[in-house]
Amino acid sequence: MIPLADGPAGPASVPGVVLASWGRRAGALLIDSLIFAVLLTIGITFVALGAIRDDQTSGADGLATILAVVGLVLCLAALGFHLWQLGWRQGACGQSFGKQVVGIRLVRVADGRPLGGGTGLGRLLLRALLGGVTSGIYTILTYLWPLWDDHRQTLDDKIFSTVVIRS
């Protein structure tokens, strides 16, 4: 168990365990978001090129269809990769690629271990659902919550009894 201290110092009585700063968490999210944005942009570019080609050839060119289909597949692959990376991978090993780069890890408070791939995916989907239902208010609050929380937890962390620590 990672006992949480009452102050921002983080886990008490566990030597060497340091809670991740908001800046590191934001940096990891930025890296993860950029990866998704680049992959999605490539897909959208193919779809756009297909649409442009279709307009220029008045629909008489099979290349336009191929470009559009490839673009759609790339967009779906980007979404699938994003779900795997921020959901399953982060749950299974405690780190998305962004978290790995900045040196932080998502762990359960109960035992300091990753929460599991399925739970990680559920955590991501719950954030998306609550963000959608509240028109993004939940998402904004959960990203900002560690700025004033004594344990530097997001709302998602509180729901799933997790913390993000330096690795």
Automatic annotation (TrEMBL):
Q: Does the keyword NADP apply?
A: no
The organism's superkingdom is given as: Bacteria
Question: What's the protein name?
Answer: RDD family protein
- Provide the protein's localization: Cell membrane
> Does Cell membrane appear among the keywords?
yes
The membrane-spanning stretches of this chain are 29-52, 64-84, 124-145
Task: Name the keywords, alphabetized.
Answer: Cell membrane, Membrane, Transmembrane, Transmembrane helix
Q: How does it sit in the membrane?
A: Multi-pass membrane protein
Q: Which Pfam families match?
A: RDD
The organism encoding this protein is: Tenggerimyces flavus
Q: Which residues form the RDD domain?
A: 19-159
Broad class of where this protein is predominantly found: membrane
